[in-house]
Amino acid sequence: MGVVAELIHVPEKYEVAIGTALGGAQQNLVSRTGRDAKYIIETLRRREFGRCTILPLDLLSENGVREKDRHFLQEKGVVGLACDLIRWEEGMDKAVEYLLGRTVVVEDLSVGVSLKERSGGSRSSPSRATSSPPAAP
């Protein structure tokens, strides 16, 4: 499949927020199956090419915000779930959900801190908040 950064399409106004949320995961490789991931790892080892993180689509589990916690998305200052603000190549649904399905993009840091405090940090609540830069005047 490819590298995450090449398989997703982020609107310019969300580049900083999504890039911050993904961090090094932008360079993760996505494979269709665990078998493909195993082959890639074996090839890297055999050729001494180093390491990488591989996301085999058939082995990824859902990582989204549960329905009962979606009320957080309606709060003032919340832009939306990161995965709802981007586009991606066909077949990448599970990888995008896994990486960004619990990341909330907010207008500023104070909204993010408040949201995290009120969510109680539960596993099903938004896992992190990242702010989007203010719109240009």
How would you characterize this protein structure?
With 137 residues, this protein is an alpha/beta fold. The chain is built from 5 helices and 8 strands. The protein has helices at 4-7, 15-22, 34-47, 93-100, 109-119; strands spanning 2-3, 8-9, 29-31, 54-56, 78-81, 87-88, 103-106, 128-131. The protein has a 3-stranded mixed beta sheet with strand order 1-3-4. A 3-stranded mixed beta sheet has the order 5-7-8, with helices on both faces. Strand 3 (29-31), helix 3 (34-47) and strand 4 form a beta-alpha-beta unit. The radius of gyration is 16 Å and the shape is elongated. 23% of the residues are buried.
Work out the helicity level. 25-40%
> In one word, what is the shape?
elongated
How far apart, in Å, are the first and last alpha carbons?
Answer: 39 Å
Strand share of the residues?
15-25%
Give a short account of the largest sheet.
Answer: 3 strands, mixed
Number of helices: 5
Total number of strands: 8
Report the C-alpha radius of gyration, rounded: 16 Å
Structural class: alpha/beta
Annotation keywords:
single chain, 137 residues, alpha/beta, three-stranded mixed beta sheet, 5 helices, 8 strands, 18% strand, elongated
